[in-house]
Design a protein that fits this description.
single chain, 339 residues, alpha/beta, Rossmann fold, Alpha-Beta Plaits, 2 domains, six-stranded mixed beta sheet, disordered N terminus
Length: 339
């Protein structure tokens, strides 16, 4: 893959293998992953838990070394120029990085001083960031008294004290309530628009990726599935999607039941415990829904909600991977063992 001077990140054939432990087999967390990230954009790494997103982030932020392959961040090689890369990036991990016993202002000043910022600039920068992130009124409160959303905003502010060129956000809204998640989304968009910052966002939330990312890379089992803008990816799927929630389904029976429905294509039937899903595409959703319901009724298949919609990112994932996004989590590489 040729390097683009306008790319904030270029990754080529990244492979990461974690050795097995206690007689367990080795884990191949990344399997030849290649992609580029345009500068000044919000770039989303989207995939189910265990797909390789966090492993990729750890490599790009110099917290882990690839088994093979190369990666450059801001034109710097993450393996050979690790110190320079760390000076050019900010990183927000899944867990909080701030000290709950210190105030918000103290946390930011310390973070800046550790990054080599002088005392005067550290204090000035802390006040600026607290104001920008809506935390000025709570600046002298211990962080342990903050809500989850406030603490997460402080984590992001702490990653920006040295004015990095690239900001990595690893699952930044996991565990937040809807209001706090919406506030974090607004902050990420502001950073990209006003600060001309490249933001790399890893997430397993489809809506988050659709709302925030200028460009997306869908990953599964440590491999790239497809890359493009959310609009481009959804536009590539013609027609509408049909989804049916199944109750204690027999996959073979469901497949036979809908095999004769006119205009139905890309049919996927999955079962997990007592639940299941039928997903398919069609050019005429209004006609297909009635025909699918009739076919399932005739085959005595129990089902719940039936929905038709325009293409979603879940449909994109289904189209390119062959199973639904939610089901992928059960089959994906376990990153927890590779952390």
């Amino acid at each position: 893959m040729p390097e683009n001077t306008e790319s904030a990140i270029v990754a080529e054939d990244l492979v990461k293998v974690y050795p097995g432990r206690s007689r367990k087999p080795a884990v191949r967390a990344l399997d030849g992953l290649s992609f580029t990230v345009p500068a000044g954009r919000v770039f989303g790494l989207l995939g189910p838990n265990g797909a390789g997103k966090s492993t990729t982030t750890k490599i790009l932020t110099t917290l882990s070394r690839p088994t093979s392959g190369t990666a450059r961040v801001g034109g710097l090689d993450v393996a050979r120029q690790a110190d320079e890369v760390r000076g050019a990036i900010g990183y927000v991990s899944q867990g909080s990085s701030t000290d709950p016993l210190l105030t918000a202002e103290e946390n930011l000043v310390i973070a800046a001083r550790l990054r080599g910022v002088n005392a005067v600039d550290a204090r000035a920068g802390a006040k600026r960031l607290l104001d920008e992130f809506g935390l000025a009124e709570a600046s002298r409160r211990p962080v342990g008294s903050f809500s989850g959303g406030m603490r997460r905003r402080l984590d992001v502010a702490a990653a920006l004290v040295h004015r990095p060129r690239v900001l990595f956000l690893d699952e930044p809204t996991t565990g937040l309530d809807p209001e706090a998640r919406a506030a974090m989304w607004a902050e990420i968009r502001r950073l990209s628009a006003e600060e001309a910052l490249t933001v790399v966002l890893t997430t397993h939330y489809m809506e988050e990726a659709d709302r925030l990312a200028d460009e997306l890379l869908l990953v599964n089992r440590g491999r790239a599935v497809v890359q493009g803008t959310p609009g481009e990816l959804k536009a590539a799927l013609h027609g509408d999607s049909v989804r049916v929630s199944l109750i204690e389904p027999d996959v073979a029976v469901v497949r036979r039941a809908v095999a004769g429905v006119p205009g139905l294509r890309d049919v996927v039937v999955e079962a997990s415990g007592v639940d299941g899903v039928l997903a398919a595409r069609t050019d005429d959703a209004s006609a297909a829904v009635g025909a699918v319901i009739a076919a399932l009724d005739a085959a005595r298949v129990r089902f719940g909600q039936v929905a038709a919609s325009h293409p979603t990112l879940d449909d994109v994932y289904l189209h390119f991977v062959g199973h639904t996004f939610g089901d992928a989590a059960a089959d994906a590489v376990t990153e927890g063992a590779a952390a």
